[in-house]
């Protein structure tokens, strides 16, 4: 896909730098990337320098070096996290820097055969400081996806490797809207639609949402001042960034004490290299009291046991059927894409800045983790419950009812 | 193309178990170019097997650097992100092990404005020599064959053949073709250190080199010692900073160098190739600098402060494995261990025992080694009485 003489990597880079992260003149850009995404990384570095970045700091992450650790390191050392990456992120926040994360794990099987208990101790390259920096809104940032061969084989195991890569490349170009003549304009339009849906939900001021479908009957309480948000984030000083490319969700922060019922995941979850499928959770008074999964249940339980807030909800998000991801019917084994395919909830930390009332904001869930998992599908009905007990249809077969 | 994974494992084991001498519980920092992923993983694996607590890889991507050199605002090029130095200080505080993999194709920067290149020296940062002098980390540098470097070293061969040739050479010079490379290196280091000790006992007043185009006297300071490249950290961990290493070296008197010298191999400095170098010295100063290729670049280096005097003299005997290959590796680690050499610029002070001698050692921001030895170059020691004692003849020790 060549347009205006640019390679696809260059078109991707322009989109990420201009619309996604919105790189500012004189900024430092920290770019976290996997091996296998070199074309995209070097193009993003070039595009950022053209926009006037002072320094583009690439933090290459190699899942196979991590595999060596999990295979051979002594168990008591696996919780060790080197201090430098976290300190670097906090400094980036203080300096109002920019963060770009290119996802596309080229080695999805890097943790195959590793004892899940060992795997759950080493969550790198995830850092608790990255959650802190997001919550503090001190950086403009963007997570975007780029195809790699290993990832393609995971997503399309029945195709031959070249065909799988080509299919993934095409699907990512489609969902990232690089197949549009003007991807930047396409995203501005889509972000405006999502913001309009968020505005309508905000007018309703629902007291709670109810999800009802196969294996799911879950009520998620909302704060009176929970605001629905979509599309873009603002840095504390107003610099806007479209933090996920693609993004299709409208989300808010729930009341962590008022979540009740059972829920079943509708898509697999990839977390720090482990694939978790068939999640079921029962909530009581906001807490996840029973957690299970058909694969890697131990990893999932370890996530929820990470700290006090890890067993409560920090996010609820709605995704309607007009997004481009779910229509493909592809499971990407990647949260960025899969969470934008379907409505979802997240265990762990919340975006407290979407809660307007200070007293309520203080009650928003806190945790060093934030793990989204998908609970929506066309079969799952979403209703809004008003304060006076009225039930209002919100999503039916993926179509907004409000 | 033969499978080199076993050689890679042996190289990694040598760097971890012998070169850096990784200890159980240590943090291990690896520096690797982006294209050295397989080797870095092998070093990580070997480190964890030796009980490393955590292996931290600093990946360096020349193409991202090239994007900066081409596109960034000129006034930002000297900016160094502070975390790189802070990470090195952290490694020092932790008493970490450090392993750097070298072997890169500097032609990657062809066409970049040299004045812009000179402003961005990354991944080099000023904390590196500080850490070396503090002797808090046990470290080593080793070569890592990769396609780009192989093409640079053997441009006339097909890419696969060039890589294969480079691998053969690296296996040979790193003594991985021995049954027990660590034992082979211990034996070689014993011989090198014994030569250094014998040379130190002689307390020569000067070294004289004579051969085709070379008639050079290099004065030595009274308290000089000859050393082999085996280092010890402040808390007693032995390590070998260069794999391979073949040299014994000391710090000369920067005021007493006279005569003329002809380089016996080309070299590459800051991306410029220099060959056929001829330098005349008077009273320690390089007074005439000529070269068949790269003369201007060499003169611009010599013009820097302290770069017109010597900071090192090193002797390599014919038992070394690099010189006989006749290959120019465009990599100081290998090329300086190919033959006896001298260096313009900065000196190590630790080979000098007296503080007054240390104060006389040469100081400069640069340190450029160039090779002046060959089997045709005779090396003599000159005693304080003026006696001439043969040191190297046809590449063999005479002492």
Give a brief rundown of this model:
The complex is a heterodimer of chains A (402) and B (399). Chain A has 402 residues and is an alpha+beta fold.
Protein architecture, described:
The complex is a heterodimer of chains A (402) and B (399). With 402 residues, chain A is α+β, with helices and mostly antiparallel strands. Chain A contains 12 helices and 22 strands. Chain A has 2 domains: 8-179, Thermophilic metalloprotease (M29) (Thermophilic metalloprotease-like); 205-226 and 247-400, no CATH class. Chain A is 31% helix and 27% strand. Chain A has an 8-stranded antiparallel beta sheet. In chain A, strands 2-1-3-4-10 form a 5-stranded parallel beta sheet, with helices on both faces. The mean pLDDT of chain A is 94. Chain B is of the alpha+beta class and 399 residues long. Chain B has helices at residues 5-19, 37-49, 62-71, 82-94, 114-117, 127-134, 147-153, 159-173, 181-202, 295-302, 332-335, 355-360, and strands at residues 27-33, 54-60, 97-102, 138-143, 206-211, 214-220, 227-228, 231-232, 238-239, 247-250, 252-262, 267-269, 272-274, 278-282, 285-290, 310-316, 341-345, 367-371, 378-382, 388-393, 396-397. In chain B, helix 4 runs parallel beside helix 6 (127-134). Chain A binds chain B through residues 28, 35, 38, 41-42, 45-46, 49-50, 52-58, 60, 62, 64-65, 68-69, 71-74, 77, 80, 82-84, 87-88, 91, and chain B through 27, 34, 37, 40-41, 44-45, 48-49, 51-57, 59, 61, 63-64, 67-68, 70-73, 76, 79, 81-83, 86-87, 90.
């Amino acid at each position: 896909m060549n347009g205006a003489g640019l390679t696809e990597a260059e078109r991707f880079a322009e989109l990420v730098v201009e619309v996604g992260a919105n790189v500012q003149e004189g900024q430092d850009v920290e770019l976290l990337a996997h091996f296998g995404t070199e074309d995209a990384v070097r193009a993003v570095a070039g595009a950022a320098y053209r926009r006037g970045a002072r320094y583009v700091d690439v933090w290459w992450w190699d899942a196979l070096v991590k595999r060596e650790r999990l295979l051979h390191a002594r168990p008591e050392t696996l919780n060790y996290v080197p201090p430098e990456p976290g300190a670097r992120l906090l400094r980036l926040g203080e300096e109002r820097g920019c963060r770009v994360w290119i996802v596309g794990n080229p080695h999805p099987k890097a943790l195959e055969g590793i004892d899940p208990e060992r795997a759950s101790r080493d969550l790198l390259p995830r850092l608790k400081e990255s959650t802190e920096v997001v919550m503090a809104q001190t950086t403009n940032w963007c997570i975007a996806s780029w195809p790699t061969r290993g990832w393609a084989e995971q997503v399309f195991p029945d195709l031959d490797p070249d065909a799988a890569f080509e299919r993934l490349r095409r699907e990512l170009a489609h969902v990232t809207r690089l197949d549009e003549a003007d991807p930047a304009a396409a995203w501005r339009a889509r972000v405006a639609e999502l913001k309009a849906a968020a505005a309508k939900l905000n007018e309703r001021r629902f007291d709670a949402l109810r999800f009802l479908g196969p294996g799911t009957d879950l009520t998620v309480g909302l704060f009176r001042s929970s605001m629905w948000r979509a599309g873009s984030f603002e840095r504390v000083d107003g610099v806007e960034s479209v933090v996920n490319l693609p993004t299709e969700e409208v989300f808010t922060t729930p009341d962590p004490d008022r979540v009740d019922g059972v829920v079943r995941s509708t898509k697999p979850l990839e977390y720090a290299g482990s694939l978790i499928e068939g999640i079921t959770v029962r909530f009581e008074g906001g807490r996840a009291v029973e957690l299970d999964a058909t694969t890697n249940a131990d990893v999932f339980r370890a996530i929820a046991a990470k700290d006090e807030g890890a067993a409560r909800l920090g996010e609820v998000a709605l995704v309607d059927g007009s997004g481009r991801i779910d229509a493909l019917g592809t499971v990407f084994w990647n949260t960025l894409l899969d969470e934008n395919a379907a409505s979802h909830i997240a265990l762990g930390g919340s975006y407290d800045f979407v809660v307007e009332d200070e007293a309520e904001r203080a009650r928003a869930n806190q945790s060093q983790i934030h793990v989204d998992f998908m609970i929506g599908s066309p079969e799952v009905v979403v209703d809004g419950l008003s304060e006076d007990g009225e039930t209002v249809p919100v999503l039916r077969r993926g179509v907004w009812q409000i | 193309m033969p499978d080199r994974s076993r050689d890679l494992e042996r190289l990694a084991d040598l760097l971890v178990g012998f070169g850096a001498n990784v200890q159980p519980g240590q943090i291990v920092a690896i520096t690797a170019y982006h294209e050295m992923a397989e080797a870095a993983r092998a070093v990580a694996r070997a480190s964890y097997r030796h009980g490393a607590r955590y292996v931290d890889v600093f990946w360096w991507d020349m193409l991202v650097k090239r994007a900066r050199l081409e596109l960034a605002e000129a006034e930002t090029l000297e900016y160094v992100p502070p975390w790189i130095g802070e990470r090195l200080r952290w490694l020092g505080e932790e008493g970490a092990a450090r392993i750097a993999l070298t072997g890169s194709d500097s032609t990657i920067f062809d066409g970049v404005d040299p004045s812009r290149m000179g402003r961005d020296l990354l991944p080099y940062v000023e904390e590196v020599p500080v850490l070396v002098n503090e002797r808090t980390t046990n470290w080593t540098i080793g070569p890592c064959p990769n396609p780009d470097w192989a093409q640079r070293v053997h441009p006339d061969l097909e890419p696969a053949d060039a890589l294969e040739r480079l691998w053969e050479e690296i296996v040979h010079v790193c003594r991985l073709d021995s049954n027990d490379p660590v034992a082979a290196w211990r034996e070689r280091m014993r011989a090198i250190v014994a030569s250094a000790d014998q040379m130190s006992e002689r307390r020569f007043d000067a070294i004289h080199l004579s051969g085709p185009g070379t008639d050079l006297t290099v004065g030595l300071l009274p308290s000089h010692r000859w050393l082999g490249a085996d280092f010890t950290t402040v808390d007693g961990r032995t390590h070998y900073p260069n794999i391979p290493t073949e040299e014994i070296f000391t710090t000369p008197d920067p005021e007493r160098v006279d005569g003329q010298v002809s380089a016996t191999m080309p070299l590459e400095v800051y991306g410029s190739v220099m060959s056929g170098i001829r330098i005349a010295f008077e009273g320690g100063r390089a007074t005439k600098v000529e070269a068949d290729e790269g003369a201007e670049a060499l003169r611009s280096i010599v013009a820097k402060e302290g770069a017109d005097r010597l900071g090192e003299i090193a002797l390599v005997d014919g038992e070394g494995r690099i010189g006989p290959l006749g290959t120019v590796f465009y990599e100081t680690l290998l090329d300086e261990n190919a033959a006896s050499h001298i260096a313009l610029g900065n000196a190590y002070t630790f080979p000098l025992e007296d503080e007054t001698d240390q104060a006389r050692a040469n100081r400069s921001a640069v340190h450029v080694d160039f090779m002046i030895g060959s089997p045709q170059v005779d090396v003599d020691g000159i005693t304080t009485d003026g006696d001439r004692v043969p040191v190297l003849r046809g590449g063999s020790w005479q002492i």
